[in-house]
Amino acid sequence: MSVTLTAQDQLTLRIAGWGAVSLMSAAGAATSAHKAATEGSIALTSATGLTGHVLAKAPKGVKYGRTTATLADVVLPALTASMTLLKQQAPEEADNFRRTILVSVEAAQQGRPDPTTTEMARKITEALDAA
């Protein structure tokens, strides 16, 4: 089945995916924000299927804000909206998207989860599962 997502739908998925990596990077700034972002980004760009095609590019021109709280205000609802969208338009792709995000979160933790990144990962998972 071929699914065509609108430009807005694709932007929502990109904000969700790339924003989740940004949240993990912000939460892990004490260890290495740059490395967290790099590892999480590699996980996103390694995705396959519709998810892989959409997440191959980062969103352009998106203003996330200056604080982690402002970033979360944008990204967490985008994660929920992405899952809702995929469950409605491409149910076979919803699980792929969810797994891709969770792999990117795990990669961003760099095998060294700490209380801050663990809590951010919980919030991301909760947003994915809210749909």
General description of the model:
- There is one protein chain.
- Helices cover 76% and strands 0% of the residues.
- The protein is mainly alpha-helical.
- The longest helix is centred in the middle third of the chain and has 22 residues, at 68-89.
- It has one domain (7-129).
- The protein is built from six helices and no strands.
- The chain has helices at residues 7-27, 29-45, 49-55, 68-89, 91-108, 115-129.
Question: What does the secondary structure layout of this molecule look like, with pairings?
Answer:
Layout: H1 7-27, H2 29-45, H3 49-55, H4 68-89, H5 91-108, H6 115-129
Helix pairs in contact: 1-2, 1-4, 1-5, 1-6, 2-5, 3-5, 4-5, 4-6, 5-6
Order of helices and strands: HHHHHH
The structure class reads mainly alpha
Quick one: biggest sheet?
A: none
Specify the oligomeric state.
single chain
Whole-number mean pLDDT: 91
Structural features:
single chain, 131 residues, mainly alpha, globular
Brief rundown of the structure:
The chain is mainly alpha-helical.
